[in-house]
Write a structure and sequence with these properties.
Elements (H helix, E strand, L loop, with lengths): L15 H12 L1 H14 L1 H13 L10 H15 L5 H56 L1
Helix pairs in contact: 2-3
């Protein structure tokens, strides 16, 4: 099983500016603002240039630089649910999704039974300890 991660598509022969832009985009609007502030602190024209670039490229007023990848992922997930036109594949996909849903439901019910058993065991232990303390109290009072 593989894990999908967000990565900007940067050509191998791209320059340092394109690579740094992709790196900042990966980290979101906060990284752009931090870079701009550091630019103002160390050399004010750099900070001013970053501010101008952020406004010009509409990075300053978008919700976040990295969320565009999430929108694309949602769109691709929705597209994956559409019929492909191949009835054999669509039947296989529907059966596989149904089987996975059944397995997930069975696993969730197993976890629920496991939690209930653990809760019951803890409650029984509490009641046994309480009864033991009550007996000890009674023996102490009788003595």
């Amino acid at each position: 099983m593989t894990t999908a991660t967000y990565s900007a598509d940067v050509p191998a022969n791209s320059g340092w500016f394109t690579k740094s832009e992709a790196w900042l985009d990966q980290r979101g609007k906060g990284a752009w603002i931090a870079a701009m502030v550091l630019g103002f602190i160390f050399f004010w024209p750099v900070g001013l240039a970053l501010l101008a670039y952020m406004i010009w490229s509409k990075r300053m007023f978008s919700k976040s630089c990295r969320h565009s990848g999430h929108r694309n992922a949602r769109r691709q997930a929705w597209a994956a649910m559409k019929p492909s036109g191949n009835t054999a594949f669509d039947a296989y996909k529907a059966e596989t999704l149904r089987r996975l849903q059944d397995e997930q439901d069975a696993f969730e019910s197993f976890l629920e039974r496991l939690r209930e058993a653990k809760d019951k065991a803890e409650f029984d232990q509490f009641m046994d300890d309480r009864e033991k303390r009550a007996k000890e109290m009674m023996e102490t009072e009788d003595a």
